[in-house]
Amino acid sequence: MKQLIAVCGLLALLACSDLPAPEQAPAAATSLRDLEAGYALQIPSGWSVSVGYAGLRLLLQQDADPAVRIAVNWDQRTDGEPAKLSEYVAFRVPRMAHFGKQRELIAQQHEALNPGVMDAVRVEYQYQIGPGHAVRSRNWLMVSGGSQYLLSLSASPQQFEELEPIWRQVQAGFRLLP
Questions:
Q1: In this predicted structure, what is the pLDDT of residue 67?
Q2: Contact 69, 75 (CB under 8 A)
Q3: CA end-to-end distance (rounded Å), the chain
Q4: What share of the chain is helix, strand, coil (3-state, %, to 5)?
């Protein structure tokens, strides 16, 4: 009986709270921890997961539209030296969208990814991969020890803004592991 009262009380609290309407709330997520690469990520509901896909450490694709992607690259220094964010940015940024045409940089700035990853660089750009196939991408570059990470969120420009709640959810749930 006490459990029933507790459940009813919780339901009443939820009904009176200021939670967003269901269509505004991000989809539920599951966690993925890559202990070898040293990161953790929240995977949105309805997304498929491919590990070690085409040179990427992790590829997530929206089940409804596989052109919508979240990717994680993991690069390790081979000289044993600690990674420096400025060096990784200088290495990675020119290689972003290397297969695309008409690349346009939208933004590049040093800022926190989330409260757990305070030192990151955000790079946003748009490019064409063929006639009528534009892609907009938001990328976060981070370093930890000798590891370097690129978290990439990509979709068509029309879908990109619609997916902002999912991008924020993934961004908030990304962690570098000690």
A1: 83
A2: no
A3: 44
A4: 20, 45, 35
Mean pLDDT of the chain: 81
| Cα 151 from Cα 137, distance rounded (Å) | 10
Rounded Cα gap, residues 94 and 88, in angstroms: 11
Amino acid (one-letter) located at 160: F
Question: With 50 as the cut, is the pLDDT of residue 146 above it?
Answer: yes
The amino acid that residue 64 corresponds to is A
Q: Which amino acid is at 14?
A: L
Confidence of residue 23 (pLDDT cuts 50, 70, 90): very low
User: What DSSP letter does each residue of 140-176 carry, written as one string?
Assistant: EEEEETTEEEEEEEEE-HHHHTTTHHHHHHHHHH-EE
Q: What is the C-alpha radius of gyration for the chain, rounded to an integer number of angstroms?
A: 19
pTM of the model: 0.79
Using a 10 angstrom Cβ sphere, with 0-12 exposed, 13-18 middle and 19 or more buried, the burial of residue 146 is: middle
Q: What angle do CA 145, 151, 154 make, to 5 degrees?
A: 170
Percent of the chain with pLDDT over 90: 55
- Strand 58-62 relative to strand 47-51: parallel, antiparallel, unpaired? antiparallel
